[in-house]
Amino acid sequence: MGERWFFRNAEEWVAIAERLKQTACPHCKIAGALNRHGCLYGFDESSPRQKTVRARRIFCSNRQARPGCGRTFSVWFADKIRRLSLTAGALWRFLQCAAAGGILAGIRALECQLSDRTMQRIWKRFDQGQSKIRTALCRRCPPPELPPRLPAIAARQPAAQVLAHLQAAFPDVHCPIAAFQHTMHTFFV
Ligand SMILES: [Zn+2]
């Protein structure tokens, strides 16, 4: 399954749910077997004490002689980050501050409940995914012509360039990471 599905709000999810019976399964490509199959819940900084919906599960039914493959998949809320209790908006703020001023600056800017070690792992995850992100962005637009204001530390410059490219690709949105996931049909990290 290469392409991931995302929704940005309740209306988009309703539209996806209403089309399910006509939609082909991303695994087996058969249409007419998809059913809603519950939700994935989790915590993030927007709701640290109460779980929120992170994704909607879909089942490709092979029960009662239905033609599906029996597999499930998720349709993700674009503002959530897989395996991470942060919203896309918080991740965007963290990465921008961390690229400019270092990981500690990113942690201070975020003021969230995650440990410093977790935030360092998040940075590493982004750092290791940079070339994949850059390749995806280049399919949408070239990197910005004017070089971004780069941090003095050379090791952080590639990250700053990727974030500038991301912003150039989605200039008018509240959160470029959520827009990336929704538009490119792939997880940001
Ligand atoms: Zn299927």
Largest sheet properties? 4 strands, mixed
Q: What order do the SSEs take from the amino end to the carboxyl end, as H and E?
A: EHEEEEEHHHHH
- State the secondary-structure class: alpha+beta
Q: How much helicity do the residues have?
A: 40-55%
> What small ligands are held by the chains?
zinc ion
Beta-strand content estimate: 15-25%
Task: Characterize the quaternary organization of these chains.
Answer: single chain
Discrete helix count: 6
Compute the separation of the termini in Å. 17 Å
Radius of gyration: 18 Å
Poorly predicted spans: none
Total DSSP E strands: 6
Order of strands across the main sheet: 1-4-3-2
Mean pLDDT: 93
Q: Which overall shape is indicated by the principal axes computed on the Cα atoms?
A: globular
Task: Describe this protein's structure.
The protein is α+β, with helices and mostly antiparallel strands. The chain contains 6 helices and 6 strands. The strands form 2 sheets. Strands 1-4-3-2 form a 4-stranded mixed beta sheet. Strands 5-6 form a two-stranded antiparallel ribbon. Helix 2 packs antiparallel against helix 3, helix 2 crosses helix 5 and helix 4 crosses helix 5. The radius of gyration is 18 Å and the shape is globular. Bound molecules: zinc ion. Zinc ion binds next to loops.
